[in-house]
Design goal:
about 350 residues, HIT family, subunit A, 4-stranded mixed beta sheet, 8 helices, 16 strands, binds zinc ion
Length: about 350
């Protein structure tokens, strides 16, 4: 497996050194599966400012549709011709149809009775129950709609990550149409199998474990690492080589994944990161799709709260970061020993 880095060197005359010539370098990294590129800049990482969501949490509590007094009054129920349960419930979690769908199957899983939970305040049971609720819904969809194979459990945490509500919730999708990510990955996996003996994800895990620079560790069913060519400021990847469908995470694996996510969320909190996006990808049926999780922080850069998503990611599809995946891996390992 090739982990290709193209080092770019840029020369200019530096006003801070009496216009002496200087050379600055950056890296273009090529994703070993898809060939997509990401850029790692050699800039010092600025300390992020801790954002206080207290006032936003208080200001939105009264009208929140996901708070316990409202959630069962004003959220939709599933059509009984599609799944056997009107709403899926477990612990504090409750899964119901998304009233603003963008696919043939879209659901929301409210994770907690509490209106606001900071990034480092999640418990294992809250995340486990929300994952299991979502997984049960996804599993129940397939008998009536075998074509909706692109199944994912997604999380926009807080407005900076695209959430319109503060109240913690997951977005659950099951579609017959691949997103760009699924299409790219599926194509690349097919190519990989045609030219290699093994399967990509198994090869990636064994290769990364051998190199050790980006390998965080193994839990029972998940291998955790930081992506060589990150899709965001950093990109924590959890690969589940022994699991194939959402129903299989119910029980021990959901508990284990929730435990790992709690650790990663706490780590992000320790860097004053307050928001993130997460996707947990499954693909039902044929082919060798290995379920995996990706989690990227969402960052507002001081002092103006500048979005980390600029023209490069938005219009060139090129992620840009100042955080080296190897440094992030070390820091996560220090904070959490799987
Ligand atoms: Zn609420």
């Amino acid at each position: 497996m090739v982990f290709e880095k193209i080092i770019k060197s840029c020369r200019f005359l530096d006003p801070f050194q009496s216009y002496a010539p200087v050379e600055k370098t950056s890296e273009v990294r090529v994703d070993p599966l898809t060939g997509s590129t990401s850029r790692i800049l050699d800039f010092p990482v600025k300390q992020l400012e801790k954002q206080d969501f207290g006032p936003i949490a208080e200001g939105t509590r009264q009208y929140c549709p996901f708070c316990p007094s409202m959630v069962e009054q004003i959220t939709p129920k599933f059509d009984p011709s599609l799944v056997p349960e009107e709403r899926y419930k477990q612990g504090e979690a409750i899964c119901f149809p998304n009233a603003f769908p963008y696919d043939e199957n879209g659901a929301v899983t409210v994770m907690s009775r509490e209106h606001y939970i900071p990034i480092d305040g999640f418990s294992i049971h809250l995340i486990r129950d929300a994952l299991e609720c979502s997984a049960r819904y996804l599993a129940d969809l397939l008998p009536a709609q075998p074509e909706v194979v692109y199944q994912s459990i997604n999380w926009n945490f807080l407005p900076l990550a695209g959430s319109s509500l503060v109240h913690p919730h997951l977005q659950v999708m099951s579609s017959s149409t691949a997103t760009n990510y699924y299409a790219t990955i599926s194509r690349a996996l097919k190519n990989y199998v045609s030219v290699h003996d093994g399967e990509f994800w198994t090869d990636l895990i064994s290769e990364e474990e051998k190199i050790g620079e980006r390998f965080i560790g193994n839990t029972d069913s998940v291998s955790w690492l930081t992506a060589f060519a990150p899709m965001g400021a950093f990109d924590v990847l959890g690969v589940l080589p022994r699991i194939s469908a959402p129903a299989e995470i119910i029980g021990a694996s959901a508990e284990e994944i929730a435990g790992a996510l709690v650790e990663i969320l706490r780590f992000m909190g320790s860097l004053n990161i307050t928001s993130f996006n997460m996707a947990f990808y499954f693909k039902a049926g044929v082919g060798s799709f290995t379920p995996h999780i990706r989690l990227c922080p969402r960052i507002a850069l001081p002092p103006l709260g500048t979005s980390e998503i600029n023209y490069m990611k938005m219009l060139h599809g090129e992620p840009l970061t100042t955080m080296k995946p190897e440094d992030i891996c070390l820091a996560i390992r220090d904070a959490w020993r799987p």
